[in-house]
From TrEMBL:
The organism of origin for this protein: Methylobacterium brachiatum
Signal peptide feature range: 1-24
Name of this protein: ABC transporter substrate-binding protein
Leucine-binding protein domain residues: 29-368
Taxonomic path: Bacteria, Pseudomonadati, Pseudomonadota, Alphaproteobacteria, Hyphomicrobiales
InterPro entries: BCAA_transport, Leu-bd, Peripla_BP_I
């Protein structure tokens, strides 16, 4: 190669590198924070799996082809509102985070929602349950994706009542989620002709439910409603089995339970439990394909509905950011998320209402008997599909100040 050819080749290489650098500089930076429980009662059902789900969504979206450069960071809120609030403020003020995702533990979620509004970022909740996020605590910066306490009450509460469970006793985790779930389920019970005979509040988190279960047993209620989740729900169900409560004729309403909890309990204990959720890995080809990919990164585990919600909501958030070519105005991004129809392989097509509530079908499941299961994660059977328009509380009944005067649907 002559000197002239070498100079030409080097010049071409430098031009190509310069063009690549310029192209990279033109990409819009987007930073997503996954904030959840990575060490406590919800670490199994959200935790690292939710972070993996968010990163899978980023990879599948192919952000560079949409002019975006996306980074995902994660932190542990320890189920403490003050810790979650502190992390959120640092992310927004110092670390350049544009949106916070997941956030199980409703008390933390409510704090994050208000800080997000104050900072005009975006909050896309998957793990937190309180329906207040699209009710009195709604904001223009919040989307509530996967489920909420009203949908759980509609699904499991009505199902138990249809099967003759007319008298109820509640064992309730004493914090925002448990109180909201009890409130919403009580409303369904009373509206449909049932009676609440009593209840007890439990510390959160709580490893020992013995005394509370004995009180529920002594009440004679046909249904014991467990208004808790995660390891708390699993511990209560396991101890109820040891006390022979279900064998004695009382029914347990697992008002929120994850597949990781059922897997941990085992079907010998969990069989026959009825519960409501928005996702199961074995629903269709799309859920199975995603769950296989997820399992390859998570030692064969299947995703929970919360983790699936993080994947689907991250995809939709990125579509909105790409459409605006900016993530800086959180309220504008959330408005675009509401304007765009949702469509993903896990939840199918859907919409986001003006109050921030994502609408999709819910499912009433039953934990299989051991003899019905064909594999380690073959744990559920579908009893009923609850249509999207029936699954969630009507918008006009939530008390969201943003939607006063709009359609009640």
């Amino acid at each position: 190669m002559t000197v002239r050819h070498r100079v030409a080749a080097l010049t071409g290489l430098l031009c190509a590198l310069g063009a690549g650098t310029a192209l990279a500089a033109d990409l819009v930076p987007v930073k997503i924070g996954v904030l959840n429980d990575r060490s406590g009662v919800y670490f199994d059902s959200t935790g690292e799996g939710a972070v993996v789900a968010a990163r899978m969504a980023v990879e599948d979206f192919k952000p560079e082809s949409h002019g975006l450069k996306v980074e995902v960071v994660a932190a542990d809120h320890q189920n403490k509102p003050d810790v979650g609030a502190s992390i959120t403020r640092q992310w927004y003020d110092r670390d350049g985070v544009d949106a916070v995702f997941d956030v199980p533990t409703s008390s933390v979620a409510l704090a994050v929602a208000q800080i997000t509004k104050e900072k005009n970022k975006a909050f896309v909740n998957s793990g937190g349950g309180t329906a207040d996020l699209t009710g009195p605590a709604c904001t223009p910066n919040t989307v509530h994706w996967t489920y909420d306490t009203a949908a759980l009450a509609n699904g499991t509460g009505k199902a138990m009542l249809k099967r003759g469970g007319k008298t109820w006793y509640f064992i309730t985790a004493d914090y925002a989620f448990g109180l909201a779930l009890e409130r919403d389920t009580k409303a369904v019970v009373k509206k449909n002709g049932g009676t609440v005979v009593g209840g007890v509040r439990t510390p959160f988190p709580n490893p020992d439910f013995s005394s509370f279960l004995l009180q529920a047993q002594a009440s004679g209620a046909q249904v014991i409603g467990l208004a808790d989740a995660g390891l708390d729900a699993a511990n209560a169900i396991k101890q109820a089995h040891e006390f022979g409560i279900r064998q004695g004729g009382q029914k347990l309403a697992a008002l929120l339970i994850a597949i990781t909890d059922i897997h941990s309990l085992g079907l010998e204990v969990a069989q026959g439990l009825e519960f409501t959720a928005s996702f199961y890995w074995d629903l269709n080809d799309g859920t199975r394909a995603f769950s296989d990919r997820f399992g390859a990164r998570m030692s064969g585990r299947k995703p929970t509905s919360y983790q699936a919600g993080v994947y689907a909501s991250t995809l939709h958030y990125l579509k909105a950011v790409a459409a605006l070519h900016s993530a800086k105005d959180g309220a504008a991004v959330v408005a675009k998320m509401k304007a765009l129809p949702t469509d993903d392989p896990l939840f199918g097509t859907g919409t986001i209402r003006p109050d921030g509530r994502k609408i999709h079908p819910m499912y009433l499941f039953e934990a299989k008997a051991p003899s019905e299961s064909k594999g380690e994660w073959d744990l559920y059977k579908v009893l009923e599909t609850i249509p999207a328009e029936q699954a969630f509380r009507p918008m006009g009944e939530g008390g969201c100040p943003m939607v006063a005067g709009l359609s009640a649907k």
